[in-house]
Amino acid sequence: MKSKQNFKNIILYLLPALLLYSIFELYPMIQAVFLSFYKWNGIGGANLKFVGFNNFISIFQDKVFWMSIKNLGIFLVLGIVSVITISFFLAYLLSLELKGTKFFKVTFFLPVVLSVTAVSLMWKMILDNNYGLLNTLLTNIGLGNLARAWLTDPSVCFIVIVLINSWIFIGYYTIIMLAQIISIPKEIFESLNMDGAGEFTTIFKAVLPLSWDVIGICIVLVTANIMKAFDLVYVLTSGSFGPSDINQIPVGLIYYKSFISDQFGQGSALSTIVMILGISLSAVMYFKIFQKADNN
After folding, report:
1. 30 is a domain residue
2. How far from 66 is each of 23, 107, 114, 124, 143, CA to CA, in Å?
3. Among 7, 64, 129, 178, which is least packed by CB within 10 angstroms?
4. Is 230 helix (H, G, I), strand (E, B) or coil?
5. What angle (nearest 5°) sits at the alpha carbon of residue 141, between those of residues 140 and 142?
């Protein structure tokens, strides 16, 4: 009843945020959908030529697009599994308040604070096939046969990029899950200890089920971050997303179509496809995860 009485005040307070959201989020989304049906070179004042669904047809006929979708699928599966799994177990270890916990909290979170571009350049130097630290170390310890061009070898380069992305953001999700784990009532752990439950039972019978809501939120956030990942891949591949588009992802293809090929219509069509895909994936994950949480 109080909320209904203050309805006008609530709307008034929400209006600035809604206005900003509409200008910087909704309007660009609507504009991208609009431009996806036109041929435009991106130059202001240039004529828009209506082409209907031709931009979408061209995108779906592009082999590079399907390669980028395949890479996105690999990125999502490996990224979600690695980030969520490692973050959860790191959070659980930190919740035990072992010696050095404060140091490790800062260490794990440090990559999140740093610029993605700076971290990408750091890894690019570490993994350089000529003077990189990793190949030099492998050679010096007698494992030179394992040295390779980590960022250009088609058999490993994209997996390496995915793992670097996971390394950057693991600390962020570790802190989120840690906040959930330490909020679990201590009586539950004391009861498990009295029943003689080991660490395995504690984790999978108590901590995991009670943290499922937060884990679900983290999965949705990881999915959203991967869907719009660009700067890391761009820097590590020197802007080529190669060799031969082997590291191409949908957001990178949007950049190439729009700003390199001056095909803003196709770039907008691809943006629309990625937007629909991202919303659909997030919605499905959200409802599936929280449906499971409610059942638990």
Report:
1. no
2. 32, 38, 32, 27, 37
3. 7
4. coil
5. 95
Count of domains observed in the chain: 1
CA distance 9 to 184: 37
Structure confidence by residue, pLDDT tens digits, 167-224: 999 999 999 999 999 998 888 887 877 877 777 888 888 888 888 889 988 998 999 8
Flag whether 174 is in a domain.
yes
CB atoms within 10 A of CB 143: 11
Range of the domain at 82: 64-295
Q: How far apart are CA 160 and CA 17, in angstroms?
A: 39
CB proximity list for 175: less than 8 A, separation 6 or greater: 91, 105, 108, 109
Is residue 15 assigned to a domain? no
Q: Judge whether 127 lies within some domain.
A: yes
Interior angle at CA 183, CA 177 and CA 188, nearest 5: 110
Tokens 């994950």 sit at which residue?
285
pLDDT digits 0-9 by tens, 239-252: 889 888 899 999 99
**CATH number of the domain that residue 139 is part of:** 1.10.3720.10
pTM, whole model, 2 decimals? 0.88
Cis peptide before 185 (omega within 30 of 0): no
Q: Which residues pair with 38 in a beta bridge?
A: 50
DSSP result, 34-71: HHTTEE--S-TTPPPEE-TTHHHHHHHT-HHHHHHHHH
The token pair at 79 is: 């990224």
